[in-house]
UniProtKB/TrEMBL annotation, chain A:
Gene3D superfamilies: ATP-grasp fold, B domain (3.30.470.20). The keyword Cytoplasm does not apply. NCBIfam families: GRASP_w_spasm. Keywords: ATP-binding, Nucleotide-binding. It comes from the Bacteria. This is Grasp-with-spasm system ATP-grasp peptide maturase. Residues 133-325 form the ATP-grasp domain. InterPro entries: ATP-grasp, GRASP_w_spasm. The keyword ATP-binding applies.
UniProtKB/TrEMBL annotation, chain B:
Pfam families: SPASM. Gene3D superfamilies: Aldolase class I. This is Grasp-with-spasm system SPASM domain peptide maturase. Residues 263-320 form the 4Fe4S-binding SPASM domain. InterPro entries: 4Fe4S-binding_SPASM_dom, Aldolase_TIM, GRASP-with-SPASM, rSAM_sf. SUPFAM superfamilies: Radical SAM enzymes.
């Protein structure tokens, strides 16, 4: 049996499940982090038994797991705390219950990791960007120089240097669809650090990440699964709208995205970096400058690979499905 | 950057045709398929050999070998390629491999057509067996009132929880139905991605907004199209014109290089309930009630026509649009010749001109041949 944790709206999950269905007779149980299920759960020593709606399974049934999306699964196992007359106590108890839930989840993942083939990151979120940059340099990958500071004067000195800097979130950028109130989407992008960005900012500002702007020849998205790499080059440089962040799509003239052959030494370093971050799948964002130098920007363990896979015919969905059914056939 | 500047400053570099822009050679006109921007441009085929030169020689070497009169044409062609961002000038293109030409899909059957005229089929069996084959798209065509709005509602219900992701319907107009009836059924099933009502009293379009308001409504709206034109039989299909060309994408382009764009992984149930590759084609694989669809699909004889790619069809093999055209293997310009071009195509690749296919010599006779073969008269609803 293959266990998939995801979100209900993730199109890639459906594509991979189609391939699993096409390639094997494996039973698949998909649990979405944003849906509620009737869950029965017992963990005893090194085993567990679970029923999610109609699907009942034990640890020994699970051959492979794909942690695709979402942080917390098995929502609603713990009651929510209601004590209107004691708000501070209620907040504290809620926090304690969240910790209970997290401990349970971590143990559940640990059991899965020890007994079945787990694809994906158990954290359900991206690793610390600043840590990634440090590790990248350790394995010999170039990264654009960066700094974090809460001083406006620091930011002003960067602007004054004339080198060109960008600023972006240290964690994941903002990405929100408000479907209940304003029906608006909110996003943050990587933005150029310009004097007007600092207008009206106090001397002590929120700690902000600044990174040297690299004049890119093109960007790279490098999907990896274990030691297999699929790279695509994105020619976003000629378009002012996408020069700093290619996610500001130009739908009239979308950027060219074409397959790219990574130099073996870059691939070897990325392999080392993935291992040091304990990731067996994800996507690296890189840039190549006019002199052919490679820079690592960040890694995304749960990124959307679907569009690149389709346009460059990389068959990533099939790769993932084959990885997930591999153990099934041996049983 | 324009070509004048390039010819002056970048003579030692190579013209790199982006790998998502694929040249396709035709007789009079050739094409570039822009797989990212889903667009096809054509140009005189005389320019086609330049693409081989771009790969082999530096820009300066190419230009120096041209005669003075060729030079101006080359500059114009280079400007055309630059204006469309089909090419970049690079020192070395070795790091940019071609897009893989492999094609596959996670299903034994990708799409199916069910025709209904005077009798119903076993829709439950059809949907269950198509789902077992991974079928993603289903089209139902009701020639008469037997298959109407109530039946569409029921079919959409049957498709829930199956592999079928989209259901498209063409139904005969039912005089007793109001606009609200049509909107209600389509609005109740997100699975229904298209409805055309034929033989209607007038040409109209009905909007379905799924209850969405404001900006969201513009994203969600679907239009039901009502047309006065009747849908007489399966012979009404197979029209080929500029409007029918598929916007090129990597998967469709690769599929059409290897397979028939219409028949590959398709299954049809004709109005008599017989399993066929296409309702208008000869060769029945049995009544759908009596045979298993999976067994039919496993039959080599059923899959043979899937490989009827345009590269192997007379005239089509010289057409620059051949990897964007589903073609037609049911209605041929010369019914006696197996690899004859489609009857209802008006393009002539040897002159690069479009004309009405009905004006072509022999077109009326070919159509009459097919009409005589149709199993008429058939019970009319």
């Amino acid at each position: 049996m293959i266990l998939i944790f995801s979100n209900s709206g993730d199109p890639s999950t459906l594509d991979v499940m189609r391939w699993i269905d096409h390639l094997s007779d494996a039973k698949v149980v998909r649990i979405n982090a944003d849906e509620e299920y009737s869950v029965e759960l017992t963990i005893s020593d090194d085993d567990f038994s679970v029923r999610v709606d109609e699907d009942a399974f034990g640890l020994e049934d699970v051959t492979s797991v794909w942690l695709r999306k979402g942080g917390f699964w098995f929502k609603g196992l713990f009651p929510s705390v209601a004590a209107p007359e004691h708000p501070a106590l209620a907040r504290h108890l809620q926090h304690k219950l969240d910790l209970e839930n997290r401990t349970l989840r971590d143990h559940f993942h640990d059991l899965l990791r020890r007994r079945s083939a787990v694809l994906g990151s158990a954290n359900g979120s991206a690793p610390n960007k600043l840590v990634v940059l440090g590790r990248a340099r350790e394995v010999g990958l170039r990264t654009p120089p960066y700094s974090v500071s809460n001083l406006r004067s620091h930011a002003q000195s960067l602007v004054a240097s004339g080198c060109g800097y960008v600023t972006k979130a240290m964690s994941d950028g903002l990405y929100l669809f408000d479907t209940t109130e304003s029906r608006t989407g909110y996003f943050t992008y990587t933005e150029a650090l310009e004097p007007r960005v600092l207008e009206g900012v106090g001397e002590r500002m929120a700690p902000s990440l600044f990174q040297r702007y690299v004049d890119k020849a093109f960007e790279l998205r490098v999907f990896f699964l274990d030691d297999q790499f699929r790279a695509a080059a994105i020619f976003s440089q000629s378009d002012a709208q996408t020069r700093v962040d290619y996610r500001k799509y130009n739908s009239e003239r979308p950027n060219r995205v074409v397959p790219f052959r990574l130099p073996p030494e870059i691939e070897a370093k990325l392999s080392l970096l993935a291992r040091s971050l304990d990731l067996n799948t994800g996507s690296f964002d890189m840039i190549v400058d006019a002199h052919g130098e490679y820079y690592l920007l960040e890694v995304n363990p749960v990124g959307q690979f679907g569009p690149l896979s389709e346009r460059c015919n990389m068959a990533i969905e099939r790769m993932i499905a084959e990885r997930l059914v591999a153990r099934e056939q041996r049983v | 950057m324009d070509s004048t500047q390039l010819l002056r400053d970048r003579r030692d570099e190579y013209v790199f045709l982006f790998s998502d822009c694929v040249p396709v050679e035709g007789a009079a006109a050739s094409a570039i398929y822009d797989l990212t921007r889903k667009h096809i441009s054509t140009f005189p085929s005389a320019y086609f050999p330049f693409f081989a030169l771009f790969r082999a020689r530096r820009l300066g070497e190419i230009v120096d070998a041209l005669s003075p009169e060729e030079h101006d044409d080359f500059v114009a062609f280079l400007d055309f390629l630059l204006a469309n961002e089909y090419v970049a000038v690079v020192a070395d293109a070795a790091a940019f491999p071609e897009i893989s030409r492999a094609w596959d899909a996670p299903c034994a059957i990708h799409n199916a057509i069910v025709d209904v005229r005077g009798q119903h089929h076993d829709y439950r069996k059809i949907v269950a067996e198509l789902s077992g084959l991974g079928c993603q798209h289903l089209q139902v065509r009701g020639y008469a009132g037997v298959f109407g709005l109530a039946e569409l509602d029921e079919l959409a219900r049957l498709c829930r929880g199956s592999s079928i992701q989209t259901l498209e319907a063409i139904l005969a107009h039912e005089p007793g139905r109001s606009d609200d009836d049509y909107v209600a059924v389509v609005g109740a099933h997100r699975l229904i991605t298209g409805l055309t009502v034929h033989s209607a009293p007038q040409e109209r379009r009905l909007a379905v907004d799924y209850g969405a308001r404001g900006d969201a409504a513009t994203l969600l709206t679907l239009e039901i199209s009502m047309t006065v034109k009747p849908l007489e039989s399966a012979l009404d299909c197979g029209q080929i014109g500029k409007r029918q060309l598929l916007p090129p994408t990597t998967p469709t382009f690769n599929e059409l290089r290897q397979f028939s764009g219409c028949l590959n992984r398709k299954l049809a149930i004709d109005e008599r309930g017989e399993v066929r590759n296409c309702p208008a084609m000869r060769g029945s694989f049995g009544d759908h009630r009596a045979v298993s669809l999976a067994q039919v699909v496993a039959d080599e004889a059923f899959r043979r026509v899937w490989a009827a790619r345009n590269d192997e069809i007379e005239v089509c093999r010289d057409c620059p649009y051949r990897y964007a055209c589903t073609g037609c293997r049911a209605l041929l310009a010369d019914p006696a010749v197996e690899d004859s071009k489609p009857l209802k195509c008006g393009y002539d690749p040897y002159t690069d001109t479009w004309a009405d296919w009905q004006t072509r010599a022999g077109a009326a006779a070919a159509l009459a041949h097919y009409q005589a073969r149709v199993h008429l008269p058939i019970v009319r609803g």
